């Protein structure tokens, strides 16, 4: 069974990879939405947890191999594995191998934000030490997100794990960026806020075609409705406002949308019903 899903975007190739799965508390994942409603969208386990995939996105341009949000990684304690019901298969290495690549082929990493489930795979344990996974890659992080992630507070310390990114800075592999910038030709970022204060989404643009990777601001199809935010979102009202703006742009410009935690097909398009009342996700087959 194939792991990787591939689509063309102009002259670019996009690959939705896999880096395992984990399960989050359903109440945390759906925030203020009652279980009697959200359980119609996904089935919780006996501990009220719901399944999420880790779907890194690889963009192959004519000059670069850009990996967005590498994923969970495998540095978790037995306690963490139990809490989050982490399954390490298929791994990011499995995904890359399927398309004839290794971590050494990646030259650019971009993170939407620095939560463990998005950048845990940026480092690995080697000979008892935590070292960079992508030793040939420059890692692009928002400067203010870096400040928040390296100085977590009582609310955020359960999602920011220093071992996932401090070794990258020590190895000289981090480039801190500010605001909305172009990373390389065809790849750019835009700050959205919401999930974290300096959360960003990532765009790939080629020959008039646009793909967007939404990170934590729209984790899965289950959250397509504007009010469906997570308990883990630091600024949920901001997310609702930003989604309205982004949905309008995504529909007008026909963005290919890539969902990081979707358990089925992560590629699709945001659409509006004919009566103009509801948004839905049209999966790209």
Count of DSSP-assigned helices? 8
Q: Quote the CATH topology.
A: Metallo-beta-lactamase, Chain A
Total strands: 18
Question: What count of domains describes the coordinates?
Answer: 1
Q: Widest sheet: strand order?
A: 1-2-5-6-7-10-11
Major sheet attributes: 7 strands, mixed
Strand content: 25-35%
**What overall geometry do the principal axes of the alpha carbons give?**
globular
Q: Would you tell me the structural class of the helices and strands?
A: alpha+beta
Order of SSEs, N→C?
EEEHHEEEHHEHEEEHHEEEEEHEEE
The CATH class designation is Alpha Beta
- In CATH terms, the superfamily is Ribonuclease Z/Hydroxyacylglutathione hydrolase-like
Specify the CATH architecture: 4-Layer Sandwich
Report the radius of gyration as a whole number of Å.
18 Å
Overall pLDDT, averaged?
A: 97
Can you tell me the residue ranges where pLDDT is under 50 for at least 5 consecutive residues? Answer: none
Fraction of residues in helices?
10-25%
Give an account of the 3D structure.
- The protein has eight helices and 18 strands.
- With 285 residues, the protein is of the alpha+beta class.
- It has a single domain (5-283), classed as Ribonuclease Z/Hydroxyacylglutathione hydrolase-like (Metallo-beta-lactamase, Chain A, 4-Layer Sandwich), CATH 3.60.15.10.
- Strands 1-2-5-6-7-10-11 form a seven-stranded mixed β-sheet. It has a seven-stranded mixed β-sheet with strand order 12-13-14-15-16-17-18. A two-stranded antiparallel ribbon has the order 3-4.
């Amino acid at each position: 069974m194939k792991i990787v899903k591939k689509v063309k975007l102009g002259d670019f190739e996009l690959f939705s990879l896999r880096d395992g799965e984990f399960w989050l508390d359903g109440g945390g994942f759906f925030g203020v939405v009652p279980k009697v409603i959200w359980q119609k969208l996904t089935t919780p386990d006996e501990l009220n947890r719901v399944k999420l995939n880790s779907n890194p996105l690889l963009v192959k341009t004519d000059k670069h191999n850009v990996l967005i949000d590498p994923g969970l990684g495998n540095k978790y304690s037995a306690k963490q594995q139990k809490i989050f019901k982490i399954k390490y298969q298929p791994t990011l290495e499995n995904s890359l191998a399927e398309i004839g690549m290794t971590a050494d082929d990646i030259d650019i990493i971009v993170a939407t934000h620095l939560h463990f489930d998005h950048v845990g795979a940026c480092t690995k344990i080697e000979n008892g030490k935590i070292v960079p996974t992508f030793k040939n890659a420059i890692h692009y992080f928002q400067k203010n997100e870096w400040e928040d992630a390296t100085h977590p507070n009582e609310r955020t310390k359960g999602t920011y794990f220093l071992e996932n990114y401090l070794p990258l800075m020590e190895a000289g592999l981090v480039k801190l960026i500010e605001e909305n910038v172009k990373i390389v030709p065809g790849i750019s970022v835009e700050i959205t806020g919401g999930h974290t204060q300096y959360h960003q989404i990532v765009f790939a643009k080629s020959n008039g075609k646009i793909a967007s990777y939404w990170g934590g601001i729209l984790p899965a199809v289950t959250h397509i409705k504007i009010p469906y935010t997570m308990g883990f979102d630091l600024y949920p009202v901001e997310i609702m406002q930003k989604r309205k703006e982004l949905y309008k742009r995504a529909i007008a410009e026909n963005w290919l949308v890539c969902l990081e935690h979707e358990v089925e097909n992560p590629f699709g398009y945001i659409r509006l019903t004919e009566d103009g009342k509801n948004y839905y996700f049209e999966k790209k087959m």
